[in-house]
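Two quick folds needed for the group meeting slides. Do the first one here.
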Amino acid sequence: MTVTSRPALLVLLFICCCYTSTLAFAPVRCFSVSANNNNHNVRDLLSRTTRSSSATVTTSTRNVLPSRGFPSALFSEKEGGQENEDPWKTSSSSKREEDCGCDESKPGLPPPPTPFVEALDPKYKCTGPVGQDSFVVSRTGGPTKEELSNENLYKILMIECTDLEVNTVVWKCLGYRFDEEKQEWTAAEVFPNWKEKYPNPPDLIGMARIYSKEVDQPSLKANQSLVRSVPVDNKQSLKTHLKPLGFTGYKYAELTPNKTRRAQCANWLLYYREELFGYTLEELRERRRLKKEAEEEEKRRLEKENGKASQDEWKPPVKEVF
């Protein structure tokens, strides 16, 4: 190559370098323009879908799961003249069922409880209707075998009786008696330990079904006192006695304060029927003494056989009503 051709070669090399750099940066500029166009398209799509709830999605988005951050109109779809609902949307009825712990679509379950303000009247426990339907209960006299039958107690769990009727049966078993002349409850035969704390029959269910602390706390405390009076051996009486009738327990999602307290009252009534019903106070104390002696004798026998002292099994404290 001659010397005179070198300048032409340098010019040609410079032109090639400039052309190559132009090609390298071209995709970047194209991508920027395309992204801007896509952003405009997305904003236009969102504005159109929010203005019209009946917007139809494109085929490319039919199989995409919805995101909670987007309007529900993006995920409504018309097929065959019907619009599919947003799968994340919660209807008012399903929300009510979730809050109340009951499913109205299932047969046999009662509707969600609503406040019953009549129960706030102090006279309601004396004048409210009882024993008008199939549930066996009478305000007068002491408890009867019919009132404590498995079939009758099963109706408590199935909510086939009123809250007042449940309270009335428990009150009679605790020893309260209704004075027809004075139209009031008396504590004539109430167990001593219970009478000391509750000289008047307490609401064990929460008949008003208003669960604020100011209204419901007395009922909650009384129900807890009733539960603490049941020995450990009798805690599972519901399944023991009512399983043949179809009771298998509650699911967690089904529980409500009303259902829980009804179950606790029914369990206490079974304990009362099996351990307390028909005995005088002196007889109950004697039976308790004999039972304690038998447990101590069994403990000594086991220690003698094993050759070492046995550790006492922990049991939750029981505060018996008598």
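Then this one, please, same format:
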Amino acid sequence: MVRPYATKGKKRKNREEKYDREEEVEEKESVKRTSIENSTNEAEGKEEEEDEAGADELVGIPIAPSDQITRKTGVIFVLEKASLEVAKVGKSYQLLNSDDHANFLRKNNKNPADYRPDIVHQALLAILDSPVNKAGRLQAVYVRTEKGVLFEVKPHVRIPRTYKRFSGIMLQLLQKLNITAVGKREKLLRVIKNPVTKYFPVNSRKIGFSYSSEKLVKMRKYVDAVGDDVNLVFVVGAMAHGKIETEYTDDYIAISGYPLSAAMCIARITEALADKWNIL
């Protein structure tokens, strides 16, 4: 059966109309794309302006002075063998200490005298409250527990004054692996990977402290002898008794003829650094 010519023409016409419609759709889509791109570019420009305006200061977080002091050499503290261990006591997880968990520790054949998280608390307060930190010369604080867990404490964090609140924060840190600022995404405390040496600056001198060291020095004279282009890393033990044994220290000194607590040792260090850098 022969197909009439009229139907063939109609199909060709329909095809042309279809092509015209496709061209119109493509034009509309291109107009939409250009308008979307323009709007995103404007939004990015506004965000960049807002970021530039808000880069100088973070609301709600105590920050170090932004007077370019941080470009100079500074100091890093490492607290070794910190007694921070979490265990399930009763129905809840708690940070173990010798006062509240003596019976629990004895039942598990552990010495209660070894569980002293208050030493870490006092040491962190001594570091973060020092004029050296408030002048912006403290670069970082690292704490390694007896179990080998390493975490970083930012210099502008405010550690709680009372031990009870400090214990709650350490418990949260060891369980969730980080603690963020209120209303911000910045991690003020975070668990990081070992070894601690990979976080040190290239030009740094690592100094360990122990009463048993044969090299007894005056702290002020010792830091004065170090060049101004060298970053100082001080490794202090945060345990009740014993000796820190680290392979990465360049020097091993004693700063008193008597055993000192970690907080007292840090106080002597920061006082000597404040004199060296003319921080009042």
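Slide caption for protein two: The helical segments are 5-54, 102-107, 117-128, 131-134, 163-176, 219-224, 262-276.
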